[in-house]
Amino acid sequence: MTPVIALVGRPNVGKSTLFNQMTRSRDALVADFPGLTRDRKYGEGTYEGQRFIVIDTGGLTGDEEGLDAEMARQSLQAVEEADIVLFLVDGRAGLTSGDELIANNLRKTGKRAHLVVNKTDGQDPDIAAADFYSLGFESTFQIAASHNRGIRSLLECLLPSEEEREEQDRAERYPGIRIGIVGRPNVGKSTLVNRMLGEDRVVVYDMPGTTRDSVYIPYERQGSQYTLIDTAGVRRRKNVREVVEKFSIIKTLKAIEDAHVVILVIDAREGLVDQDLHLIGFVLDAGRSLVIAVNKWDGMDPEERARVKEQVRRRLDFLDYADKHYISALHGSGVGVMYESVQACYDSAMAKWPTNRLTAILEDAISQHQPPMVQGRRIKLRYAHQGGSNPPVVVVHGNQTGALPGSYKRYLENTFRKVLNVTGSPIRFEFRSSENPFAGKVDRLTPRQRVKKDNDLKAGRRPKKQRMKSKKR
């Protein structure tokens, strides 16, 4: 589905300029006086392969009469047609009563609306946007449409990424929460699938390699939709010789990417082995939520159980955020409790967080522990927003983010995980540095400056900048 984005706001706040930037055209007339746009205008744009439609509208004041009333009707019609509404305000003029009237009318429509503070060039964007936070919008963006600044970040937040579009396609084919059951051969994966379904749905036999292909099984439990994915066991590469088994492993790895939550089944009687850790690594690389199920727990004496628990605690110390269950798939003990962990993992992986909340968490984290200095300059992290789900992606914007050390990135990850109460799911961070508006521009001298520079060179005098640097030394 192609998203439709409507631009609304007071006259002369930059709607037509933003329309031209988003569509990469000059279809909308732009001039420095209000009321130029009267009819709603449609345009098409693309961002990273995603098509979208933009609607430019006439300015609203809240007390329209005559021709202005007809323009307002056109704008409200655009809001009804849109999936996303961008409410533009003027960062130089500040908050006005007209902005408050438009904000109140947008709330009544029930549409998904975002506040966009335009004309932030030449001033501190945070200061320019400060007055508008009182309007109560969940997400606020700061842009300079005339200079094409901040628009990429805006589109990145509004439009679904390629991963999210693939997720929408999978959701149509496999409804509900998709649960992948993975593990080594003969650890009880198919037995666990049958126990969770309450019937003998897949073949169970005491021989490794019984399951050859990944089986997707939709079902319903207590009014909730699920899709269980039974997979083939994954052995170490040196033990894989048959061609069929190689294809089975490829199907298993694909099933992990299709799943929302992965349940890794471990054989309690063999303990945690290196191949289990390799599978955990692949699940984490795929960004999927993880639940650990230690199977065949029945019939073990207390000493063996204590030894296995200590081994799991010691070797999986890096997975302290993932729930661990000790179960018997054959007898069903502990299996039902795993649904609570699956639901918590799914909620964390698919959570949507507003930009202002993520930015507030970032500011609190910085106040507790500032980023380090690099070449005499402090790394600055300005704001954060969500860049995707399953796994949740937090995009942090700032300066010199490429020099941020790994220890500080882990500190941010642990802070966000604790505050947002993320269970079972990894969190990915993307750090982006602000664009330099003067990059690639030539410093052109005026005729007077050019004559002075030539005279300085003829007289053997150094330029003014070099003289100032030598004085500092």
Automatic annotation (TrEMBL):
Species in which this protein is naturally found: Marinobacter lipolyticus SM19
Protein keywords: GTP-binding, Nucleotide-binding, Repeat, Ribosome biogenesis
Biological-process GO terms, alphabetical: ribosome biogenesis
Protein name (database record): GTPase Der
Compositional bias segments (type: Basic residues): 460-473
Listed NCBIfam families: GTPase_EngA (TIGR03594), small_GTP (TIGR00231)
Biased composition (Basic and acidic residues): 441-459
Upper taxonomic lineage: Bacteria, Pseudomonadati, Pseudomonadota, Gammaproteobacteria, Pseudomonadales
Binding residues annotated for GTP 2, in chain numbering: 183-190, 230-234, 295-298
